[in-house]
Amino acid sequence: GRETRLRVVLRVRPLTCTETRRGDRQVVHSLGDGSVHVCATRHDATFGFSAVFDAGASQEAVFEGSGVRQLVELAIDGFSCTVFAFGQTGSGKTYTLMGPLAQSETRPAAPGLLGLMQRSFACLLEQSRGRGSDLALSASYLEIYNEQVRDLLSPGPPCALPLRWSKTRGFYVENQLSVDFESLEAITSLLLQAFNALPAGSQRRRTSAHALNRHSSRSHALLTIYIHSRAVSTHPALGGACPSKQGTLCFVDLAGSERVKETGSSGELSVEANNINRSLLALGHCISLLAKPRGKQTHIPYRDSKLTRLLARSLGGSGITLMVACISPSSRCLSETLSTLHYASRARRVTTRP
Description:
The chain is of the alpha+beta class. It has helices spanning about 15-20, 60-65, 70-75, 95-100, 115-130, 185-195, 260-265, 270-290, 305-310, 310-315, 335-345; strands at about 5, 5-10, 30, 35-40, 45-50, 50-55, 80-85, 135-145, 150, 160, 165, 170-175, 180, 205-210, 215, 220-230, 240-255, 320-325, 350. The chain is globular and about 70 Å long.
């Protein structure tokens, strides 16, 4: 019930081979104390965060240093926890959450390259065995594509689902599929099936290639783990069980913010880019208003987009939220990098009441 600030961490990816070959300069430098310095023509600024992971940081270091392990424990205790990654196209959001794009059920990623999601699943199952709790685990996986909410786990081509609101549940997706799982392999299999293209060209999550990224996510994806726990008790008056707790652990992979001119997008890709930017703008507006002192806050326009409706509880409600801001250190990406840094700095002032 106490006010809790959003935890915001920053990850700076390495310069790519393409950026190095064309002579891009590195304009973002980690200062080693949770802050970064941006040094470029007409720009000289320092930004502070809960933690900063530079180009040399491993996937394990990001998992341990960002506090995701604590979020898993809180979710088991009955809290609503959310991790979401944001930043421009090609900044490493999906890699941070999922690891290499080339992985599949037959070609799993090397253990050291696994992302925050897979590490959280392993931690969740490890915690459930160690606590002596009776845990029931299930998962749902949604994407928001062109302002339509689609179920990535339902059989057949993804179809649009209605987004509803109720006084008791807040915003929720009607008729979304939830799948039970009991092992790390089962949930990882679900995740990879939903992310990768399936036979007959029926691709699940929408990705496309353009000038900035060969595998650009064209939708926002939300994977939610539902954790129903009941601690076993030996006290006869309790009938062998304690009251149950229901927590959630949600991972949000936001589509990358981008300048349509830079991506060379046209036609359908241009429509997708405009819808992505419009929903990210709505999210930024909500964060700006939530960052104001509580006495000065006005109406928060969650209804401006499907994304802000689904994140309403995480951002301004009763949840515990970790934001992972991903940026490129390249001088060519300076404008988008500064935009992400300002965005993340505002988010640090947002508070919730878990």
